[in-house]
Specification:
- This protein has helices at residues 35-48, 74-84, 101-114, 130-135, 143-161, 234-243, 264-272, 289-299, 313-330, 343-346, 355-365, and strands spanning 7-11, 52-55, 89-95, 120-124, 169-172, 177-179, 189-190, 195-196, 211-214, 226-229, 248-257, 283-287, 305-310.
- The chain is of the alpha/beta class.
- It has a single domain, classed as TIM Barrel, CATH 3.20.20.30.
- The strands form three sheets. An eight-stranded parallel β-barrel has the order 1-2-3-4-9-10-11-13, surrounded by seven helices.
- α2 (74-84) packs parallel to α3 and α3 crosses α5.
């Protein structure tokens, strides 16, 4: 753990964690996909003092579920949000189950440049076989194979971020050279299902390596900066956090808060008439803000941060902003990200040395 400060992230995809959340949203249903909607949520989270926002994603279109939800790609939304925020970290979810890691690397590196070093990556998996047809690829059918694709994908993306050394762009007018080609490197990756040579087409990100978040069961700890752990109670979360070997650990917590208009239980019951709130094995808080403050205070003894999944963003995010984060700030449990600070710095993570430059230094030392 990094210290007493608790880093708070919030998931802002859709209208909330409940599949029927749109029924209680403060906007008209057709505004969900508008630029103003996502920018407003990101700005509200930044003003409240959150460390990080995440944006879920998936390739499958809305289906026959009770409350289908459409979405714009997470990376595209993240890039838009980066231009309207200045301090908060931004981490889209991207699966490499079928997507080309080479393209994922370029997209995320570009996001880090756009955000001036505030980008992260939530590594996810495409679990439904139907996703394979979207990509026109054979299905990756079992958990072990999906974990392999995630492991190889993260390895390739991280290597490509290093394929440009920090000083590869020289912009020398005198010699008419923009790049020092000796500082661009092939990564020469060969995995079980594909090979990637490189180098990347985007210069090394400002952070060197974006902050990588993911579940330990899906991504090896050595490839993660932040492990996302789950558990239905404090003991389970504490055990999962103790077992995670990543530099930072965030607990996944779903929240439904009492509001001036209705209690958390009443709000959940109203939505449950339309669709069930799926049990994902996460800690779940239903009740007043002060009880959530106490829960987060207890969690701070086990984890470095918490990613909150609000029941309905338009109802829960204002309560989090007015009551929860200020109370945690008074207890000196949270601190706002500072202007001009990268996400890695905010989380207390060092900027990694470029692997190729470091190898060259070691070779010269011999």
């Amino acid at each position: 753990m990094s210290g007493p400060a608790l880093h708070l992230a919030v998931e802002i995809d859709g209208d909330g964690a409940h599949p029927a959340a749109w029924r209680r949203a403060a906007h008209a249903p057709d505004r969900l996909l508008s630029p103003r909607r996502v920018a407003g949520l990101a700005t509200a989270a930044e003003n409240a003092g959150f460390t990080l926002i995440t944006l879920d994603d998936g390739v499958l279109p809305p289906g026959a579920a009770a409350d289908p939800v459409g979405r714009i790609g997470a990376v595209e939304r993240a890039a838009f949000v980066a231009a309207s925020t200045s301090t908060i970290g931004i981490a889209p979810a991207v699966a490499v189950t079928y997507a080309e890691p080479f393209h994922v690397s370029g997209q995320l590196a570009s996001l880090d440049h756009i955000s001036a070093g505030r980008a992260g990556w939530v590594v996810t998996q495409e679990e439904h076989p139907e996703a394979a047809r979207v990509w026109g690829r054979p299905a990756v059918a079992d958990a072990e194979a999906r974990a392999r694709e995630s492991r190889d994908g993260v390895e390739v993306v991280r290597a490509l971020w290093d394929s440009w050394e920090d000083d590869a762009v020289i912009r020398s007018v005198a010699t008419s050279r923009y790049l020092d080609r000796d500082r661009l490197h092939y990564i020469d990756f060969t995995g079980e299902t594909y090979a990637v040579k490189g180098p990347a087409i985007v210069p090394r990100p400002p952070q060197g390596q974006l902050v990588v978040l993911g579940r330990p069961a899906e991504v090896p700890a050595g490839q993660l900066d932040v492990a996302l752990v789950e558990g239905r109670d404090l003991a389970s979360v504490g055990a999962a956090a103790a077992a995670a070997a990543a530099p930072r650990v965030f607990a996944e917590v779903e929240v439904a808060l009492d509001t001036p208009d209705a209690s958390a239980a009443e709000r959940v019951a109203d939505l449950e008439r339309h669709a069930p709130w799926t049990d994902r094995g996460r800690l779940r808080h239903l009740g007043p803000a002060e009880q959530l403050v106490s829960l987060l205070t207890e969690l701070s003894r086990h984890v470095d941060g918490v990613r909150l999944h609000p029941l309905v963003l338009d109802e829960d995010l204002p309560v989090l902003s007015r009551l929860v984060l200020p109370a945690l700030s008074e207890r000196r449990l949270v601190a706002r990200p500072l202007p001009g600070t990268s996400l890695r710095s905010t989380l207390g993570l060092q900027r990694p040395a470029n692997r190729f430059a470091a190898a060259a230094v070691q070779e010269e030392a011999r």
